[in-house]
């Protein structure tokens, strides 16, 4: 594998690690970066790579929030930690809508929406929505400030919003954060729950893409996947820590404006109008 190809894969890993957790659409950014700096691989492999590279990003969540996610406690021997199990029940409930729709309509969604026009429109649309939601929340008192305060019904509601993220350019984290904030969840808890939702959803999406692609990889393709996932993991750790610190003092408006500007730039640069 040529040195420049390795650099391109690393850059894609960096883009994934940053944009997966910020509400700006990782898939949208990956599609756009590939337009100007495509890796030397088949279209089928690249489509699969853009999803499977997320496995590295997922592991960052597991590492950072390990204590909150492990359903075991060492108090008087190893036992099931009930509050954590309840959290996992909520996570799984929230994953049902996107899981069902994703399995049934994955190919159709890619066929209809996997293009630059869709990405640019959704970037702008959800950028505007973020600004409106933040304006609405400006003087609002959040009713859910702990994960334990999140009702099962609200978890399902957030999961329904996650379905919107199946359309490229929407942003999975953006859609679920918007849904969570609309029902009174604080920014910090909305972000945390969004990160946790990514674990089963992204594992499932990656497995689905691998099954469709087949388990036959060339040595070069295996190398691309490993480099991409390692890079995505390292950058994701830094990005998640940054975001959790940032939203303690700031809102999501900056990301909304960024999305709008990027969407307009995409439209102008690619001559979509």
Automatic annotation (TrEMBL):
Main location per the UniProt record: membrane
Acetylation as UniProt keyword: no
Membrane topology qualifier: Multi-pass membrane protein
Subcellular location(s) per record: Cell membrane
Catalytic activity: di-trans,octa-cis-undecaprenyl diphosphate + H2O = di-trans,octa-cis-undecaprenyl phosphate + phosphate + H(+)
GO molecular function annotations of the record: undecaprenyl-diphosphatase activity
A Gene Ontology biological process term: response to antibiotic
GO cellular component assignments: plasma membrane
InterPro entries for the chain: UppP (IPR003824)
Class in the EC hierarchy, top level: hydrolase
Alphabetical UniProt keywords: Antibiotic resistance, Cell membrane, Cell shape, Cell wall biogenesis/degradation, Hydrolase, Membrane, Peptidoglycan synthesis, Transmembrane, Transmembrane helix
Top-level taxon in the UniProt lineage: Bacteria
Protein's UniProt keywords contain Cell membrane: yes
Enzyme Commission identifier(s): 3.6.1.27
Membrane-crossing residue ranges in chain numbering: 48-66, 87-106, 112-133, 154-183, 189-210, 222-243, 255-272
Function: Catalyzes the dephosphorylation of undecaprenyl diphosphate (UPP). Confers resistance to bacitracin.
Additional facts recorded: Bacitracin is thought to be involved in the inhibition of peptidoglycan synthesis by sequestering undecaprenyl diphosphate, thereby reducing the pool of lipid carrier available.
Family classification: Belongs to the UppP family.
Protein's name according to its UniProt entry: Undecaprenyl-diphosphatase
UniProt organism field: Thiospirochaeta perfilievii
Source organism phylogeny: Bacteria, Pseudomonadati, Spirochaetota, Spirochaetia, Spirochaetales
């Amino acid at each position: 594998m040529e040195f420049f190809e390795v650099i391109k894969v690393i850059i894609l890993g960096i883009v994934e690690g940053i944009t997966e957790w910020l509400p700006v659409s990782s898939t949208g950014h990956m599609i756009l970066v590939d337009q100007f700096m495509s890796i030397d691989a088949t279209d089928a492999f690249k489509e699969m790579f853009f999803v499977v590279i997320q496995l590295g990003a997922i592991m960052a969540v597991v590492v950072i929030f390990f204590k909150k996610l492990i359903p075991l406690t060492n108090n008087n021997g190893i036992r099931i930690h009930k509050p954590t199990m309840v959290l996992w029940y909520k996570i799984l409930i929230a994953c049902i809508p996107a899981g069902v729709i994703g399995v049934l309509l994955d190919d159709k969604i890619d066929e209809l929406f996997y293009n630059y026009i869709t990405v640019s429109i959704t970037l702008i649309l959800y950028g505007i929505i973020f600004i409106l939601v933040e304006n609405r929340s400006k003087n609002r008192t959040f009713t859910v400030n702990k994960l334990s305060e999140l009702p099962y019904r609200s978890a399902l509601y957030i999961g329904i919003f996650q379905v919107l993220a199946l359309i490229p350019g929407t942003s999975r984290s953006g859609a679920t954060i918007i849904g969570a904030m609309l029902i009174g969840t604080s920014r910090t808890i909305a972000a945390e729950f969004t990160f946790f939702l990514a674990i089963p959803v992204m594992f499932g999406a990656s497995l689905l893409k691998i099954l469709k692609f087949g388990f036959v990889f060339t040595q070069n393709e295996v190398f691309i996947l490993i480099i991409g996932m390692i890079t995505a993991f390292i950058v994701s750790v830094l990005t998640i820590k940054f975001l959790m610190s940032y939203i303690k003092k700031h809102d999501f408006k900056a990301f909304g404006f960024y999305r709008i500007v990027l969407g307009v730039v995409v439209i102008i640069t690619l001559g979509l109008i």
